[in-house]
Design brief:
This protein is α+β, with helices and mostly antiparallel strands. Helices cover about 30% and strands about 20% of the residues. The chain is built from nine helices and 15 strands. The chain has helices at about 75-95, 135-155, 210, 220-235, 250-260, 265-275, 280-290, 300-310, 360-375; strands spanning about 10-15, 20-30, 35-45, 50-55, 60-65, 70, 105-110, 115-120, 125, 160, 170, 175-180, 185, 195-200, 340-345. Strands 1-2-3-4-8-7 form a six-stranded antiparallel beta sheet, with helices on one face. A hairpin with a 5-residue loop joins strand 11 and strand 12. The relative contact order is 0.13. The model is unreliable at about 195-200 and about 315-378 (pLDDT under 50).
């Protein structure tokens, strides 16, 4: 169940020092999902535009359109309080990260029954979801390295992004990638708790431990490595899923039990990557990052970069070239991004169930799953 967005001209964060009486004024909706709503807003303090994210969990709350507030659904008040506190706490953690590859947080506050935080509006394009014809490894390698460096800065604070996908990474004209949308981020410490919480994940880009609420305690930096590697692989070779999307982890698990290596991300994928010019060292890293078992992946971004440094064609940190701006605006395959899916962790599913994900792809893989399971049982 989605939450209605705030209308344009809505004013947020009361501030007596501003002529309007509030710091931010909503201009338009940028995106909306099961976790929150993102707006483009005018920031009166800096006299520019920014991005404002509103916590709006459709499983837990609904909009009182008369007052513009969010109201917890019956019996979900404790969960709403938990999430509001969590977003405020983690936005403050994010604000401590001083890295050009992580979006800057301007403000975080509680208003209208929920939490908000404001971030810089990044001048950049979404990372392509599909193969970028004509833009090879020599263009992408410095960008990929910067992605892993930024991910390391995120993990150094104890945060796990948990929903990395192409649409959550912007690339500036200079070639600098920037991670955005930390609405699903959690601390590693939090994942060790059994408290009821809602977890967002994007099918295909999410590792098995994010798709299964019983495995939530296995989530860590290596989970983000899985998602980032999936996104990077897609820049060079089509994923074996429908329409070039990554194969969902739950389906990979079913296929791997039926036929060793049939999950599509083993030696054959490494050879395909090498075949389009990805150095063997990086091809091995990417394939290892998307291993189904968390313990078989690199532990963190630092380990990935250490392994990559052994590649003869990797750029030294002190002399990485900026890829030309034109090279970082390649055509993207015509398709919509996968919606994030939401499940309960540590308890019973929330009322309303999980959101539907990528209609056609889901139906296709469900059919494949039944075929696989039927053969396994025969």
């Amino acid at each position: 169940m989605s939450v209605l967005p705030l209308p344009p001209a809505t004013r947020l964060l009361p501030d007596s020092t501003q002529a309007s009486g509030c710091r931010f004024t909503v201009e338009r909706v940028l995106s909306a999902g099961g976790f929150g709503i993102t707006y483009v807003a005018y920031d009166a303090q800096f006299a520019d535009r920014c991005v404002v994210k509103e916590l709006a969990l459709g499983e837990l709350m609904g909009r009182d359109t008369a007052r513009g507030t969010l109201v917890p659904l019956p019996g979900r008040e404790p969960d709403v309080r938990y999430w509001v506190d969590k977003v405020v706490r983690e936005a403050r953690l994010l604000n401590r990260i001083r890295h050009e590859g992580v979006v800057s947080v301007r403000a975080v506050w509680v208003e209208r029954g929920t939490a908000f935080y404001a971030m810089d509006l990044i001048d950049g394009s979404e990372m392509p979801r599909g193969v970028t014809r004509g833009w090879g490894w020599s263009v992408w390698e410095p960008v990929v390295i910067r992605m892993f460096e930024a991910l390391g800065a995120i993990h150094a604070t104890g945060l796990v992004h948990s929903d990395i996908k192409p649409s959550n990474m912007l690339i500036k004209p200079t070639g600098q990638p920037v991670f955005i949308d930390f609405g699903t981020a959690r601390t590693s410490e939090e994942m060790q708790k059994t408290r009821l919480t809602t977890v967002a994940f994007t099918p295909g880009y999410a590792p098995p431990e994010l798709e299964d609420r019983e495995r939530a305690k296995e989530v860590g930096p290596w989970s983000d490595l899985y998602s980032l590697a999936m996104a990077v692989i897609g820049l060079f070779v089509p994923h074996p899923g429908l329409d070039g999307y990554p194969v969902e982890a739950r389906m990979r698990l079913a296929l791997s039990r039926h036929s060793r290596g049939a999950e599509g991300y083993g030696e054959e994928m490494r050879q395909q990557l090498c075949g389009v010019g990805v150095p063997d060292a990086w091809a091995k890293i990417l394939v290892n990052c998307v291993k189904l078992a968390p313990e078989e992946r690199p532990r963190d971004a630092a380990e990935v970069l250490s392994r990559a440094s052994r590649s003869a064609v990797s750029y030294p940190a002190t002399s990485r070239p900026n890829a030309p701006a034109a090279d970082l605006s390649p055509p993207v395959l015509a398709s919509q991004d996968v919606d994030s899916e939401f499940v309960e962790v540590g308890g019973a599913p929330a009322s309303g169930g999980a959101q539907a994900s990528s209609g056609c792809a889901t139906v296709f893989w469900v059919v494949v799953g039944f075929i696989v399971l039927a053969r396994m049982c025969s």
